[in-house]
Amino acid sequence: MAGRRAEMMEETRVKLIAAGRRAFAEQGYADASMDDLTADAGLTRGALYHNFGNKRGLLAAVVNQIDAEMAARAQAVGARAGDDWQGLLAEGVAYIEMALDPDVQRIVLRDGPAVLGDPSQWPSQNNCLRVTQQTVERLIGRGVLKPVDPEAAARLMNGAALNAALWIAASDDPETVLPKAVEAFRCLAAGFLA
């Protein structure tokens, strides 16, 4: 009985996150109606309040989901790069390039910071930071990178990629800004090479 209840609760969360994701992508956070998105999920406002507290809580769950997907995609790109250094660069560039995705732009890079605050403090960003720091530590250990503080280097690289993505999302011409941001990111990262 308890297992089925937990299953139903998870199904409700999944439905609400999917409906929130659609609503936030199509209308933006400010214009997304809680009544419409809960009706879209076939649920009540009470289900939203019970699971997420409010619309802001739902946005946080949606941002977390998308950010986790972005990190997984970037890590997959990095894994195909061949070595840790090229992988680290490829992950950063992949993250920056995702700023061209309209859903990522609106939900994660515009509404997310406006409603949830500093993206560098989001739990999903902390997970990315840990992975980057581990890679930096390996590269320092192999003499590929200068012997700088690994956390500092990881924070600066992740921050550069995040800020480049934010710049692209806020730009009037994201397609023109993207190559500039990628080139600058690569130059900044190369400064860490031994």
From TrEMBL:
Stored Gene3D superfamilies: Tetracycline Repressor, domain 2
Pfam families per record: TetR_C_41, TetR_N
Listed transmembrane segments: none
Record keywords, A-Z: DNA-binding
HTH tetR-type domain residues: 10-70
Keyword NAD among record annotations: no
InterPro entries the UniProt entry points to: Homeodomain-like_sf, HTH-type_TetR-like_transc_reg, HTH_TetR, Rv0078-like_C
DNA-binding region: 33-52
Protein origin, superkingdom: Bacteria
Protein name in the entry: TetR/AcrR family transcriptional regulator
